[in-house]
Input
Amino acid sequence: MSLARRSLMEAAAARFGWRRAYGDTTAVDGLLTEQTETAYTDAAGHAALATAKNDDVLSVQPGVLDVRGRVLADVLYLEGVLAGARNRGLPPELIERLEDAVDHGHELTVLLADTVRTTAALHAAS
Output
């Protein structure tokens, strides 16, 4: 939808990264598809930049550290969402999905930290 066709609230939400709740799966699927398409469109530029920039083990480190920091912040936010869902007695299926997402997020931060340590170790060994 073009910016001209969006409501003021939708434009503000898009600008500031706000999300609204969607009450039906068709709308959710549409949003998820849009997010995926946007990410894959942006990925081509990221890959080109990363290929040009990451020419030794230490040059990889800042990008991985940046991603780990953002993932960790998002996972901790998601833990708050999970705590709220538990405290409000929301359905067990939702709690389970949130728990899985939080667990996987923490696993990802561990893998990214290991990657950063590897860059330093490989640099020291060379």
Summary: The chain has a mean pLDDT of 87. The CA atoms of residues 64 and 115 lie 8 Å apart.
